[in-house]
What does this fold into?
Amino acid sequence: MNFLELAKQRCSVRSFTEQPVEKEKLEYILEAGRVSPTACNMQPQRIIVVQNPENIKKVQKCYKTFGSSCVMIICRDERLALVREFDNKCSGDLDIGIVTDHMMLAAREKGIGSVMVGLFDPGIIRKEFDIPEYIQPTALLILGYPQNGFSDVNRHLKERKPISETVMMEKYSDEK
It folds into this structure.
C-alpha cells in the first residue's frame, strides 16, 4: 500500500477489544517512533509502555483508556530541547507529534487502532509513574484492536476541509 492509502486508513479509535497487542507488533510500532525525525536529531522522546492492568488504572486516573490494554506515555526530555532563538519556541512538542504520528501510522499498517491524547493531567502521570521534573509527559498513545473496526477511508471527503481552504500559494490570505 502506498503512503497516502495508509494515511487515509488511519483513524482515531475510542473503543478497543481486550486482545493484547502482540510483542512483535509493539516492537514494530516502537521502531517506527525510533526512526522518526526530530529537530537536529536530538531525539527527546521518552516512551513508557503501559500494559500491566494495575498501571493502566493509574493512567485512567487522568484519562479514559477506552478498554485498551496498551497505552504509551510519550514524554519529552527537556534537556534535549532545541529552542528557536527568535521567539523561544521549543521544538520538543513538534518532535513528540512526529514520533507519535509515525507510531500511529505503523500501528494502522499492522491492524492496530490508536488514538493520540493531549488533554490529560500530566501531574497525575508524573506522580503515578515517578517521572522526574525534566521529563514532560506530553501525549498518551492508546493502542489496541478496534471494537467496531476502522472508520471508512472515504470519510475524508466529508470530514476534511478541501485543500483550497487550508493551503495558500506564495502568501497568506484569508480570502476563499
About this structure: Residues 123 and 137 are 8 Å apart (CA to CA). DSSP finds seven helices and four strands in the chain. The chain has one domain: 3-166.
